[in-house]
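Q: Sequence in, structure out?
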Amino acid sequence: VDLGIAQINSRMLSEYVGNDPYSKSLGEPVRARFGLNQSTEVFFNGSGSYGLLASILSDLISPLAVISGVDVVGLGPQFTNVNMLANRAGIEYKPIEPPLGSSSSEKVGFLIESRRRSKKPSIVYLDNPNNPTGDSLSIGQVEEIARATQGKDILVIDEAYGDLVSDDQSAIKLAEKYGHLIVLRSISKGVGLASPRLGYAVMSEPIAKVYRDIELVFNVDAVTGLLGKIALNPDILQRFLPIVREKTAEIKAIITQGLTDSGIKVFPSQPTVSIFMAQNKGNFYGDLLTVGINSEDGITFKPTHMNMDSSLVRVRIPGSINEAEEIIQRVNY
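A: Exactly. Output:
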């Protein structure tokens, strides 16, 4: 792909970017890809979906709401930085903790029952696909949660790994239907551009109306904006992402089957998502490290689920079949 580097000139680098130039130019390919109305707002951030989540918790939620006791609830285990960002914003984080290995329908039931019992509004944070499990709720299950939280909560769906599942499973289209919904996306996972740190959010109109007034200026620089125009091109993604998903599923099947054959528990996950959770006796994280396999220690996720410990690890799949086979060999060494 021609990145259009010739378009980067001294004027682009020395002058301030125009008045919110990427809100429209980068929003168009997102709207085209997901079939959104032209009036649907797409907001961008040069710190990825992580930066958008930080802004939502710190800036969108008013101090009065925090004083009144609004909290953040999430379906654990989940992306650990939601806990950190909630604390940074002075908002209490309360994980909902279904038994590890629960089915997706059981998890949805836990969340909905928790919201039914609650008497006060919350920011409900759902990472889908889930980090660390790599599991994914269906769009029907996500809409079930949207209905259950409507009229009381703000529902934030973080789809950082969303490019690794089919577009028809994204909650983005639901933002036009439910007034309390925010969907976050990133180009760092399925698209593979982690360095530019570009993230975007699709918001329902009632929330977008407020977010317009608190959005930081200059939050996407000119070079990132240029890369984003190519990375978000729906014609390119239509050809590229199915290849990524297919290759991911192929490598993931080899490594998960190899671990299962070795007596290691592998938790259910979406085949095309590039992470999964596994468990073995003792300090599994430390045991893997001793044979040169780097994973994410399960204890990292303990703030989001009390039963997470070092017997559990999150594994990122490697980039090739040879590397997957090497991992299995080392585990069996």
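The mean pLDDT is 92.
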